[in-house]
Amino acid sequence: MVEVREGRWRERGLIVRIQDRAEGGLLLRDSDTRPEVQLGPLSVDKVQWDRSTAAPQSPDQRELRAYDDLVAAGLADGTEVTVTGPLTQAGSRHRLQVRVFEV
């Protein structure tokens, strides 16, 4: 997602949707096409930009609860899950903030 401020584009983040089988709890193991991805809660601000307020959109309650709901679902290893949210990287580690999920 990008925001426009004073006629300039600024990248705000990357939103991805990953469909895979969960292993080891809230972890999507690496594959031939991507590295291992740790799942985590959505941060306070979303990547999406609210043009009317010139600020990041605020997540709704469902989005804020998504990670906790996923934890509560108690996924068994091998359960197929689709997770959507902002993807971040720190060094070689990747983390997907859970905004929406489907089991």
Outline the structure in words.
- By secondary structure, the chain is mainly beta.
- The protein has one domain: OB fold (Dihydrolipoamide Acetyltransferase, E2P), CATH 2.40.50.
- The protein has 1 helix and 10 strands, in the order βββββββαβββ.
- The chain has one helix at 61-72, and strands spanning 2-5, 8-11, 14-21, 27-28, 37-41, 49-50, 55-56, 80-90, 93-98, 100-102.
- Strands 3, 4, 5, 8, 9 and 10 form a 6-stranded mixed sheet that branches. A two-stranded antiparallel sheet has the order 1-2. A two-stranded antiparallel sheet has the order 6-7.
- Strand 8 (80-90) and strand 9 form a beta hairpin.
- The longest helix is centred in the middle third of the chain and has 12 residues, at 61-72.
- The chain is globular and about 45 Å long.
- The model has no long low-confidence stretch (mean pLDDT 82).
What's the number of extended β-strand segments? 10
SSE ordering: EEEEEEEHEEE
Q: Approximately what portion of the residues adopt beta-strand conformation? A: over 45%
Task: Label the CATH architecture.
Answer: Beta Barrel
> CATH top level?
Mainly Beta
Taking all Cα atoms into account, the compactness measure Rg is 15 Å
Low-confidence stretches: none
Question: Roughly what is the average pLDDT, rounded to an integer?
Answer: 82
Main sheet summary: 6 strands, mixed
The rounded distance between the terminal residues' Cα atoms is 26 Å
Structural class: mainly beta
Overall number of domains? 1
Which fold name corresponds to the CATH topology? OB fold (Dihydrolipoamide Acetyltransferase, E2P)
What is the helix fraction of residues, given as a range? Answer: 10-25%
Number of helices: 1
Q: Any idea what the shape is? A: globular
